[in-house]
Amino acid sequence: MTDAQSFYGRWAQVYDWLASAPGVASWRDRTADALALAPGDNVVEMGCGTGTNVPHLRERVGPSGRVVGIDVTREMLERAREQSARTGESVHYVQADAARPPVREADAVLATFVAGIFEDPAAAVDAWCDSVVPGGRVALLNFQRSPSALAAPLNLAFEGFVRLSAPGTRLSRRSHASAFERRVAAARERLTERTVDRRYDTFAGGFLGLLSGTVT
Ligand SMILES: C[S@@+](CC[C@H](N)C(=O)[O-])C[C@H]1O[C@@H](n2cnc3c(N)ncnc32)[C@H](O)[C@@H]1O
């Protein structure tokens, strides 16, 4: 069992409450918009957790489309399957390693609060770009320190967010946040290399960064 599986296996219920807290839905809506989905599209979410993005994706691809949620943690997928808003004929959950996703020729790939977990985020982003058809979009949403001066006190809470969203005993205690930031930066850099027509947006006071691009 990996660090992520044991962490998220233990905290699945609590994570689900946090992930579906009031206000979070608007972040997820903006993120789904960045994928420019159309009815009938096949969209894959890497590290889908408890499926909180799924209603936003399902709504955009419609009944003729397909939403595939991939996650390595059984307990997270169980929470997803329990909720009618996150299930349906067009929704499929797969327990698998998103670093080697068992999917091909998707129209779009989404990864929210996930890129900072991977040992080799650039390789994971490569695998995600390889999973979409040319012209398909890939979007990464991540927590980050806010550049706003007003946010300085809240930046102190960043370490807490990181511990919640990117468990990893291999990250040293002192450098947990900076190791996380290096991983997110590596993922964004690789997505930048692999895509055109990129968009970068920040929201939630600058604490969230959303990078999306079209795979060539
Ligand atoms: C912070 S949660 C994000 C969940 C969801 N994307 C969201 O926005 O709420 C990270 C998720 O990534 C999953 N995960 C971690 N490593 C993974 C891997 N190698 N393959 C697939 N899923 C993984 C965890 O099980 C967890 O559900």
Automatic annotation (TrEMBL):
Example of a GO biological process term: methylation
Keyword Zinc: no
InterPro entries given in the database record: Methyltransf_25, SAM-dependent_MTases_sf
Keywords in alphabetical order: Methyltransferase, Transferase
GO molecular function: methyltransferase activity
SUPFAM superfamilies (UniProt xref): S-adenosyl-L-methionine-dependent methyltransferases
Residue span, Methyltransferase domain: 43-136
Entry protein name: Methyltransferase domain-containing protein
Organism: Haloarcula mannanilytica
